[in-house]
C-alpha cells in the first residue's frame, strides 16, 4: 500500500508534496546566486581593503635615489591635508596605463599625490618617470615590499585616499580608470576637503 | 574547407538532435511505433555528425592550420603530435566539442545496447539525451565556435599551456567528461521513468551499468588529475580542495551514492524516489561543474577563459535542465509507489546510511565551495580552503568507512548486527594491529594511526566478506573454487572496490602525515640524507626538447652504500609561452616514493633541490585502480550487462509454473 | 604586474597560476626546526593573495615569498601563532585565512555540515520507521508490501533468463 494511504489525510499529502517540491526550491535559490555572481561588474579577484577607516600604518620610506624629491613617512600624511597615495613600479604595465590620469590629477593640484616606488630599481624608476612625467610630490621607496604588506597591498598599482587626519578612507585596486576617478575618488576628496 | 565542413556537421548535428529530442517523445506519448523507432537511427546519425566535426577540428590541430583561431590560440607547429591532439580539448571551445561527442557516444550506446528496453522507455531516454545535446550544441555553436577563422593567418600559434603538455593531463579531461556526461544516461532514465510514472526493479537494473560506466570513468579522471598534480607541480601534493577539483568530486560522491541506492531499487524496489532524485542531482552537479569552470563564478587555480556571456547561456541551460527536471520530479514523484519493508538493521538500512553520509559529504563540499559566493552577497570576503575541508570531511567519512565493512555482511530485510560483528573479529584484530604497528613504528600522531587502523578494518572486512561467501578454508578448495566461479561478478566487483577504497585511504592518510621533505641548495658533488636515503647531486645539464629547454639534474640515490636509483628531475622552459614547468623524478618502491624536483639556480653554481619521501603515496592510485577494476568486473556481470535485463509481462500460466 | 599576468594567462585559455615548484626556497628556512615547522603550519593556512586558493606555502608568487619571510620574522621575534595570523588579518582581512574564523558570518559554513547531518538523519529516521515492519509485526516481513518474496524471485528469474520471456515484446 502506498504511504499516502497509510498516512491518511490531506495534511500528510500536502507535507509530502512540499518535501518533493523542496529540491526545486533549493535550486531556485542557487540559480539566483549564480545569476548574481555573473554580474559583469563583479570581479571575485578584487579584495576589499581591511585598512579602510584605519590610520595609515607606521612607516618611514626613504626618497627615491637620484631624484630631487623628499621621501615619505607616516607624519607626512597627517598634516591636515587630503592626499592620494599610489603604489607604482616601472615594470608594472597597468601602472603605465593609469599614469596619464595621475598626471592630469597632478596638474589640477586639488590633492597631494604621493607615490610608493614598489620593488623597483631606482634607475629604472627614474627613467620611467622621466619618460612619462612625475605626478608625485613625494616618493617613498619600498624596495622590500614590506611597506606594501603593511598597507595590505597585494600588487601594483593600488591607490589610497588619505584624509587630513592620516586615516585611510578609500582604496582602489588595480589601475585607476576615469570612471573610478570621477565617481568615487574626486567626490570623496571634495567631501574630505569639506 | 575542412573546418567549414566540421562547422556544418555541427550545425546538422543540432538539427538532428532537435528532431531526435521531439519526434520520439511525441511518438511515445501517442504510442506511435514509427515515431519512437526514429530515435535509434537519429542517435547514430548524431554521433556520426559530431564525430565528423570533432575529427575536422583535430585535423586542423594535427596539420597546424593557423587559419583557425582556436588552433592559433592553443597550438604550435613544433608541439609533439600527442599534444597537438590533446590540444583539441585543452581549451574551452574544443573541450565543448569533446563534451558533445561523448554525449553522442553515450546516446548511441543506449540506442545500440538498449535493444531490449521497452520501446517507449528507449524512445524517451534517447529523446532526453538528444535534448541535452541540443542545449550544449547550441551553446557551442552560438557562443564558442571552435571553427572560427582568422585572417591573415599568423605564421605560428601561441602554443598550448606547457603544464597541459603532459601525458597524464592529455587523458584527464576525456576521462572526466566521460564521467560527467555518462551520468546523463542515468539522468535520462530518471526523467523517462518520471514521464512514464514507473520505477521498478528492472529500471534499477537498467540504470546501474550506465552509472557504473560513468563512475569508473570519473574515478579514472579524478585519479589522473591528482596523479598529474603530484608529479607535475613539483612539491608532491595530490589534492588541494580547489573549486575545480571539488566540482569533479561532488558528482563522484553522489554518483557513488546512486550506485548503491540503485541496488536497493533493483533488489527490493525501495528508495525509488530517492534514487530518481539522486540520478537528477548527480547529473545536475556535473552540469554545475561545467558552469563554474567556464563562468568565472568562483576563483580557482585553474579555470578556463571566463566569459560572463557564456556563463549566462550555461545558467539558462542549467535552469531548463535541472529546474525543469526537478519540477517534473515534484509533480510526478509523489505518485511513485514505494516498495518493500525492511528493518533499520539490514542491508537496505546500511545502504540508506551510506546514502545519507555520502550526500552529507557532498553537501559539505558544495557548501565549502560555494560559500565565498554566498558570503560575498552579504559583503563578507572569505576563503574556504583545504583546512576547512579536511576538518569537516574526515568526521563524515569515518562512520562511512566504519559501516562500509559491516554493510555487505547484513542480510536483506533484517540483519543481525551482533552476528556480523562476530564474523568481523579478524577485521577488528587487523584494525588494532595496524594502528598499533603504526604507532610503534612512527611514534604518532595518534589520529592518523587510528585512521590507518580504520583502513585495515575496511580492507579486512571486504576480504572476509568475500572469503566467507566462497567458504575459503572452511570448505574443500574445489568447493571454494566452484563457489567463487558461481559468485556473481558484481560481488567480486564490490570486494575489489571496497578493498581499493581501503588502500586509497591508507595512502592518503600516510602520505599526508609522514611525508618527509628537504629543501636545500645543492652543488654538484653535494650529498644529503633524507629518510635514510643518501642523495648525491652529480650535475645539472642543459638539454633541448622539441619545444622547450630543460635543465636536467642527475642525482644518485643510495641506501647504506647500496645503489638504489638514479633520478633525473628536470626544470623546463617553454619559450613560446615563457613559462617554466617542473618534471619531478619519482622512484617508487610500491610502499613509498622517492621524489625529487629541481628548482632555480642560485647563481653560484648551486640549484634548489627538493627531496621528498612520500610514504604509501602510490597506494592512492593503486586504490583508485582497484576501485575502477571493481567497477569493470561488476560491469562484466552477465546480469548487469548493459541492456541485458528485460522487463517482460509473463503469461499467468508461465509465472505460476515457475513460482 | 601579477594582475596583467593573470589577465594574459586567462586570455590564453586555461590559466594556471599554480607556479610549479615555487614555494619555500632554501634561503627562507629557519635554523630552528621547531620555529620552522610552526612557520610551515601557519603558511599552509594563509592564502596567497595574488594566486587563487593557494596557500603561501605552496605558491611561487613574489608576494607569497614576502609573506612567508614575514611569518618567520614574526615568529623569531617571539610572536605566537595566533599573533602572526592576527597580524595578517589586520592587513588583508579574514580573506587571507584559508580556514575562516568562526563568527556570525561563517556560522552557516561551520555548522552547515552538522545541520545537513541532522536534517538528513531526521529524514532517514522517519523513513526507516515507516519502512520498518515493527517488532510486533513480524509476519509482515514475510509479506513486505507490494512484492512478496515469491514475486520477487519470479521477477528475478524473468530478468535473468531472457529465454523465459513472453513472446511479442519487440526485442
Q: How many E-type strands of chain C? A: 1
Instruction: Report how far apart the termini of chain A are.
Output: 78 Å
Structural class call of chain C reads: mainly alpha
Please mark out the parts of chain C with pLDDT under 50 across 5 or more consecutive residues, or reply none. Answer: 1-21, 136-146, 162-171
Structural class of chain A: alpha/beta
Could you say what the CATH architecture of the largest domain in chain C is? Orthogonal Bundle
Per the CATH scheme, the topology name of the largest domain in chain C is Helicase, Ruva Protein, domain 3
CATH class of the largest domain in chain C: Mainly Alpha
Taken from the alpha-carbon principal axes, the silhouette of chain A is elongated
Q: Judging from the principal axes of the Cα atoms, what is the shape of chain C?
A: elongated
Written as H for each helix and E for each strand, in order along the chain, the element string of chain C is HEHHHHHH
- Into how many domains do the coordinates of chain A divide? 2
Strand order of the largest sheet of chain A: 5-4-3-6-7
Biggest sheet layout of chain C: none
Percentage of β-strand residues of chain C: under 5%
- Per DSSP, the total helix count of chain C is 7
The residue fraction in helices of chain C comes out at 40-55%
Amino acid at each position: 500500500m502506498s504511504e499516502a494511504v497509510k498516512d491518511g489525510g490531506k495534511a500528510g499529502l500536502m507535507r509530502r508534496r512540499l518535501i518533493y517540491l523542496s529540491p526545486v526550491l533549493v535550486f531556485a535559490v542557487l540559480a539566483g546566486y549564480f545569476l548574481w555572481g555573473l554580474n559583469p561588474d563583479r570581479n571575485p579577484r578584487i579584495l576589499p581593503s581591511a585598512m579602510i577607516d584605519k590610520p595609515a600604518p607606521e612607516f618611514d620610506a626613504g626618497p627615491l635615489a637620484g631624484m630631487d624629491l623628499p621621501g615619505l613617512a607616516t607624519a607626512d600624511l597627517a598634516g591636515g591635508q587630503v592626499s592620494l597615495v599610489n603604489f607604482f613600479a616601472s615594470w608594472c604595465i597597468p601602472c603605465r596605463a593609469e599614469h596619464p590620469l595621475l598626471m592630469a590629477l597632478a596638474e589640477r593640484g586639488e590633492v597631494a599625490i604621493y607615490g610608493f616606488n614598489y620593488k623597483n630599481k631606482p634607475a629604472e624608476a627614474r627613467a620611467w618617470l622621466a619618460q612619462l612625467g612625475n605626478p608625485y610630490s613625494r616618493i617613498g621607496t619600498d624596495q622590500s615590499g614590506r611597506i606594501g604588506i603593511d598597507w595590505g597591498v597585494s600588487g601594483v598599482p593600488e591607490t589610497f585616499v588619505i584624509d587630513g587626519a592620516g586615516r585611510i578612507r578609500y582604496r582602489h585596486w588595480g589601475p585607476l580608470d576615469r570612471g573610478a576617478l570621477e565617481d568615487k575618488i574626486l567626490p570623496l576628496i571634495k567631501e574630505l576637503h569639506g | 574547407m575542412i573546418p567549414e565542413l566540421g562547422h556544418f556537421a555541427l550545425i546538422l548535428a543540432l538539427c538532428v538532435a532537435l528532431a531526435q529530442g521531439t519526434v520520439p517523445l511525441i511518438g511515445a506519448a501517442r504510442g506511435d511505433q514509427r515515431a519512437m523507432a526514429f530515435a535509434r537511427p537519429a542517435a547514430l546519425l548524431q554521433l556520426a555528425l559530431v564525430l565528423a566535426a570533432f575529427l575536422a577540428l583535430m585535423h586542423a590541430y594535427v596539420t597546424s592550420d593557423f587559419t583557425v583561431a582556436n588552433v592559433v590560440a592553443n597550438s604550435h607547429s613544433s608541439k609533439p603530435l600527442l599534444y597537438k591532439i590533446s590540444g583539441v580539448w585543452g581549451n574551452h571551445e574544443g573541450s565543448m566539442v569533446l563534451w558533445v561527442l561523448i554525449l553522442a557516444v553515450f546516446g548511441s550506446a543506449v540506442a545500440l545496447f538498449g535493444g531490449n528496453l521497452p520501446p517507449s522507455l528507449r524512445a524517451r531516454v534517447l529523446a532526453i539525451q538528444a535534448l541535452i545535446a541540443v542545449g550544449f550544441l547550441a551553446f557551442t555553436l552560438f557562443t564558442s565556435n571552435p571553427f572560427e577563422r582568422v585572417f591573415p593567418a599568423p605564421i605560428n600559434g601561441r602554443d598550448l599551456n606547457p603544464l597541459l603538455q603532459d601525458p597524464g593531463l592529455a587523458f584527464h579531461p576525456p576521462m572526466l567528461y566521460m564521467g560527467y556526461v555518462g551520468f546523463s544516461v542515468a539522468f535520462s532514465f530518471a526523467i523517462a521513468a518520471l514521464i512514464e510514472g514507473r520505477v521498478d526493479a528492472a529500471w534499477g537494473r537498467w540504470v546501474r551499468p550506465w552509472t557504473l560506466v560513468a563512475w569508473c570513468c570519473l574515478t579514472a579522471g579524478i585519479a589522473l588529475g591528482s596523479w598529474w598534480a603530484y608529479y607535475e607541480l613539483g612539491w608532491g601534493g595530490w589534492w588541494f580542495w580547489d573549486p575545480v577539483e571539488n566540482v569533479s568530486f561532488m558528482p563522484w560522491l553522489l554518483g557513488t551514492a546512486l550506485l548503491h541506492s540503485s541496488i536497493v531499487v533493483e533488489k527490493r524496489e525501495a528508495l525509488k524516489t530517492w534514487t530518481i532524485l539522486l540520478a537528477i542531482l548527480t547529473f545536475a552537479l556535473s552540469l554545475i561543474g561545467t558552469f563554474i569552470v567556464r563562468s568565472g563564478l568562483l576563483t580557482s587555480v585553474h579555470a578556463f577563459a571566463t566569459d560572463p556571456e557564456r556563463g549566462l547561456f550555461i545558467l539558462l541551460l542549467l535552469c531548463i535542465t535541472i529546474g525543469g527536471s526537478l519540477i517534473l520530479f515534484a509533480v510526478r514523484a509523489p505518485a511513485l509507489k514505494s516498495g518493500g519493508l525492511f528493518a533499520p538493521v539490514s542491508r537496505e538500512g546500511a545502504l540508506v546510511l551510506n546514502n545519507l553520509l555520502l550526500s552529507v559529504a557532498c553537501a559539505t563540499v558544495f557548501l565549502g565551495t560555494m560559500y565565498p559566493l554566498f558570503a560575498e552577497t552579504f559583503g563578507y570576503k572569505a576563503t574556504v580552503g583545504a583546512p576547512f575541508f579536511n576538518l569537516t570531511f574526515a568526521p563524515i567519512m569515518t562512520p562511512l568507512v566504519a559501516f562500509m565493512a559491516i554493510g555487505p555482511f547484513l542480510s536483506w530485510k533484517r540483519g543481525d548486527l551482533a552476528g556480523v560483528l562476530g564474523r568481523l573479529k579478524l577485521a577488528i584484530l587487523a584494525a588494532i594491529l595496524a594502528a598499533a604497528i603504526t604507532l610503534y613504528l612512527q611514534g604518532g600522531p595518534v589520529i592518523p594511526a587510528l585512521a590507518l587502523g580504520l583502513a585495515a578494518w575496511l580492507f579486512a572486512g571486504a576480504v572476509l566478506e568475500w572469503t566467507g561467501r566462497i567458504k575459503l578454508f572452511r570448505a574443500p578448495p574445489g568447493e571454494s573454487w566452484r563457489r567463487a566461479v558461481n559468485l556473481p561478478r558484481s560481488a567480486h566487483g564490490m570486494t575489489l572496490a571496497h578493498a581499493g577504497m581501503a588502500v586509497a585511504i591508507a595512502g592518503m592518510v600516510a602520505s599526508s602525515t609522514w611525508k618527509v621533505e628537504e629543501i636545500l641548495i645543492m652543488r654538484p658533488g653535494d650529498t644529503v640524507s633524507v629518510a635514510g636515503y643518501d642523495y648525491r647531486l652529480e650535475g645539472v645539464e642543459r638539454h633541448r626538447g622539441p619545444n622547450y629547454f630543460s635543465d636536467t639534474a642527475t642525482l644518485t640515490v643510495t641506501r647504506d652504500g647500496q645503489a638504489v636509483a638514479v633520478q633525473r628531475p628536470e626544470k623546463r622552459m617553454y619559450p613560446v609561452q615563457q613559462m617554466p614547468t617542473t618534471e619531478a623524478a619519482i622512484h617508487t618502491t610500491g610502499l613509498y616514493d622517492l621524489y625529487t624536483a629541481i628548482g632555480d639556480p642560485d647563481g653560484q653554481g648551486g640549484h634548489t633541490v627538493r627531496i621528498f619521501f612520500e610514504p604509501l603515496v602510490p597506494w592512492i592510485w593503486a586504490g583508485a585502480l582497484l576501485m575502477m577494476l571493481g567497477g569493470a568486473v561488476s560491469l562484466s556481470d552477465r546480469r548487469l550487462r548493459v541492456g541485458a535485463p528485460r522487463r517482460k509481462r509473463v503469461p499467468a500460466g508461465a509465472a505460476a509454473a515457475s513460482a | 604586474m601579477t594582475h596583467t599576468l593573470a589577465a594574459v594567462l586567462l586570455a590564453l585559455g586555461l590559466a594556471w597560476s599554480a607556479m610549479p615548484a615555487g614555494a619555500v626556497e632554501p634561503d627562507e628556512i629557519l635554523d630552528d626546526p621547531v620555529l620552522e615547522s610552526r612557520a610551515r603550519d601557519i603558511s599552509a593556512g594563509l592564502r596567497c593573495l595574488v594566486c587563487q586558493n593557494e596557500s603561501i606555502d605552496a605558491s611561487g608568487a613574489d608576494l607569497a615569498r614576502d609573506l612567508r619571510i614575514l611569518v618567520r620574522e614574526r615568529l623569531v621575534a617571539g610572536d605566537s601563532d595566533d599573533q602572526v595570523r592576527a597580524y595578517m588579518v589586520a592587513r588583508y582581512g579574514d580573506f587571507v585565512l584559508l580556514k575562516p574564523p568562526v563568527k556570525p558570518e561563517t556560522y552557516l559554513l561551520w555548522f552547515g555540515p552538522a545541520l545537513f547531518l541532522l536534517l538528513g538523519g531526521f529524514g532517514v529516521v522517519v523513513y526507516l520507521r515507516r519502512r520498518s515492519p515493527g517488532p510486533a509485526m513480524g509476519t509482515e516481513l514475510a509479506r513486505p508490501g507490494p512484492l512478496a518474496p515469491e514475486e520477487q524471485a519470479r521477477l528475478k528469474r524473468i530478468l535473468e533468463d531472457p529465454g523465459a520471456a513472453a513472446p511479442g515484446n519487440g526485442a
